[in-house]
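Tokens in:
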């Protein structure tokens, strides 16, 4: 593999860049390139140790050189006419030639990326050696010359080994023949350049940030996540141990055929970089049970899985590969499968993908066994909360295009994660152009602002692989401020539409370098153990609990007609007054219908009684029965008189008047009945009395109360004195057996008003 060849050779020499030596002190054993070889000398006289590529030969096939030249042509640094040494033509944005497999594509991108790093050095060599001015090659082929010259010096100007069945591309062979004829002068120019700049190796000419990134990429371990839809942690561990792998506790202990579990994500295993071939022999990779992917791409899916509620979907937006989609889908499917729920749907925005890229993504998802993924072809900015497909989406995973400045192996990362290849030229120089950085930040702000507008989204996970604060904390902070300010301007309650930063969902127990639990952002600095990344979780604020006062609860209940205006002191609206009037009219009608019927019956009884009252003794039995009934009615009336003060007052007055006229054989029934007629309902509703709870209401029926008369016997005992009464006369002895005297409700004794005191006749 070209990366191992180029980087491995540079790593051995780049370690000597810290100690500078003069040209005479450079040992040929470390770098066999002659430092002061004259232009006409033969560079082949030096016998360097040959270095082979991943294909087991020196150099690459013609197709890789051609593809690398197109990549370099599209991304090389353009200089002004006054500073330009080599002209590469005006064509940019060329379509990439097709290659056989991904390995060849990666080799071509690595070759182009390395040529971008040393563009100025290679141009100096071409000018100093006279190659550019003397060789009859058109300007549009100078990109091909550049990538072949870098590979030529990297293999110590040794000729390329060719295979018999290799594809022949004429323009590649022509450029190679010109370079071979000038190899001595080219080697001499490189030696003079190193002497001039006092370089132990050509890596020393690179910026410090690029050299550091290059050194870290050599020792980066392999990260692989377990596909829970096809396997489990126990099964993978069993297969690895049976294949001779042994598990250690930390990444620092990785040595030989060992592995460990990632301290942040439990479904990720870490291996030394050189064990990729051994992993393929276990068939875990070919069976899609173990997926090799950078750790920075796995943190977002794990954060989403921890935030997703029991019922809800996920929306993915930004720059990602089919592996990231499959990882997210498998995690949320496994989580809800364990709970017995249906698999949540993972919606993926693919508006920026070509048809071929969409088909490739769908194939990757299908191969992983994911059945809960749906692609959305619309642009993310055109989607909103009213979309029927997104009604159950509660979490958004946003991985926007970023500068990839925290990644030590940018070529491999960009190719695997469908990144922006236009960043290769900036990454080769160790910094991103300000114009490109501003364009990236503007798009990131646009995406996160739109993500916070979905009303049913409970959390937004924002993740980048950038080391610039402009793309990380500043973007998130400004988006939160704008979202909260917008909710306040609309007059809404700020907490109902606002988001807040949540603590990091990841923590490293017993690890001094781990982030604090209270840190709202999760950041990994690039190191020899992993690439750098940034992650933030924005949670929607829960709706505030409003505590209502008692009178507010009553007002709200009265507005719905539940409590019939109990406890309401506010003026009724016209609509409420109309409804309340109707209810009062019905109640009044129910209360007055029965008294009117009683008055009518009593009037008829009065006429009958008036015509037959002349002979009291003849109708004594009929009168007693009628009075007994009326006595019972009086007892009912006395119980009902407790409800209103006016009824009690009328009953008391009637009893007193009846007692005074008890010796009269005939009662004035008309007068007493008219007195007991209920008064008409008030014109305005009375203020209701507050009751602790609603009880069934019963309409009471007014009853006419008539006290029974007192009858004396038809004959008197012999008179012993002048008054005609016997001194020992006992009134109770002569009381009719059918007469009843009402009892007092409180004590059960005789009512004071019902007691009849005899008065002297004379």
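Residues out:
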């Amino acid at each position: 593999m070209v990366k191992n060849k180029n980087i491995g050779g540079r790593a051995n020499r780049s370690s000597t860049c810290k100690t500078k030596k003069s040209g005479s002190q450079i040992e040929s054993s470390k770098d066999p390139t002659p430092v002061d070889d004259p232009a006409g000398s033969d560079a082949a006289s030096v016998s360097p140790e040959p270095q082979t590529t991943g294909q087991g030969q020196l150099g690459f096939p013609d197709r890789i050189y051609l593809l690398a030249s197109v990549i370099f042509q599209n991304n090389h640094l353009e200089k002004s006419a006054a500073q330009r040494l080599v002209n590469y033509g005006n064509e940019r944005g060329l379509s990439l030639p097709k290659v056989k497999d991904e390995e060849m594509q990666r080799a071509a991108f690595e070759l182009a990326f390395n040529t971008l790093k040393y563009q100025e050095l290679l141009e100096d060599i071409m000018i100093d050696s006279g190659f550019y001015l003397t060789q009859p090659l058109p300007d549009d082929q100078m990109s091909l010359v550049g990538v072949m010259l870098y590979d030529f010096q990297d293999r110590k100007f040794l000729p390329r080994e060719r295979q018999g069945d290799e594809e022949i591309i004429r323009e590649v062979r022509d450029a190679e023949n010109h370079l071979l004829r000038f190899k001595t002068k080219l080697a001499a120019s490189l030696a003079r350049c190193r002497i001039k700049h006092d370089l132990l190796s050509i890596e020393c000419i690179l910026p410090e940030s690029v050299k550091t990134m290059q050194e870290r990429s050599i020792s980066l371990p392999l990260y692989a996540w377990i596909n829970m839809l096809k396997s489990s942690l126990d099964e993978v561990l069993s297969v690895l141990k049976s294949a001779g792998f042994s598990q250690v506790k930390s990444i620092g202990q990785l040595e030989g055929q060992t592995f460990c579990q990632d301290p942040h994500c439990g479904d990720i295993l870490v291996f030394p970089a050189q064990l990729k071939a051994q992993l393929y022999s276990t068939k875990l990779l070919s069976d899609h049970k173990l997926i090799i992917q950078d750790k920075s791409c796995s943190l977002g899916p794990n954060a989403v899985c921890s935030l997703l509620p029991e019922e809800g979907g996920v929306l993915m937006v930004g720059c990602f590969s089919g592996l990231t989609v499959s990882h997210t889908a498998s995690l949320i499917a496994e989580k809800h499968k364990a709970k017995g729920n249906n698999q949540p749907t993972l919606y993926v925005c693919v508006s920026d993908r070509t048809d071929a890229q969409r088909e490739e993504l769908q194939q990757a998802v299908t191969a992983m066994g994911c059945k809960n993924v749906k692609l959305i072809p619309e642009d993310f900015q055109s989607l909103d909360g009213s979309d029927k497909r997104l009604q159950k989406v509660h979490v958004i995973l946003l991985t926007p295009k970023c500068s990839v400045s925290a990644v030590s192996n940018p070529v491999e990362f960009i190719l695997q994660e469908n990144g922006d290849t236009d960043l290769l030229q900036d990454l080769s120089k160790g910094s991103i152009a300000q114009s490109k950085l501003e364009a990236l930040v503007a798009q990131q702000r646009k995406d996160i602002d739109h993500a916070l507008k979905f009303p049913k989204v409970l959390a937004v996970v924002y993740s980048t692989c950038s080391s610039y604060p402009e793309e990380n904390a500043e973007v998130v902070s400004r988006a939160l401020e704008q979202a909260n300010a917008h909710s306040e301007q609309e007059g809404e309650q700020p907490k109902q539409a606002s988001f807040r930063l949540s603590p990091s969902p990841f923590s490293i127990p017993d690890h001094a370098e781990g982030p604090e639990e209270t840190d709202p952002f999760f950041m990994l600095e690039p190191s020899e153990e992993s690439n750098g990344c940034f992650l933030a979780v924005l949670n929607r604020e829960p709706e505030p609990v409003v505590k209502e006062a008692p009178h507010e609860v009553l007002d709200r209940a009265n507005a719905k007609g539940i409590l019939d205006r109990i406890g309401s002191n506010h003026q009724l609206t016209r609509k409420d007054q109309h409804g309340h009037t109707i209810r009062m009219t019905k109640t009044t009608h129910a209360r007055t219908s029965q008294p009117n019927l009683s008055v009518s019956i009593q009037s008829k009884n009065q006429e009958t009684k008036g015509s037959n009252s002349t002979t009291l003794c003849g109708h004594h039995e009929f009168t007693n029965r009628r009075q007994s009934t009326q006595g019972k009615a009086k007892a009912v009336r006395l119980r009902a008189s407790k409800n209103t003060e006016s009824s009690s007052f009328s009953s008391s007055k009637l009893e007193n008047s009846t007692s005074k006229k008890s010796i009269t054989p005939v009662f004035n029934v008309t007068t007493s009945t008219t007195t007991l007629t209920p008064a008409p309902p008030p014109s305005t509703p009375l203020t209701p009395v507050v009751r602790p709870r609603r009880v069934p209401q019963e309409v009471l029926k007014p009853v006419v109360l008539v006290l029974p008369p007192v009858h004396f016997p038809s004959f008197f005992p012999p008179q012993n004195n002048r008054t005609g009464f016997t001194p020992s006369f006992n009134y109770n002895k002569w009381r009719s057996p059918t007469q009843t005297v009402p009892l007092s409700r409180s004590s059960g004794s005789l009512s004071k008003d019902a007691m009849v005191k005899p008065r002297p006749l004379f």
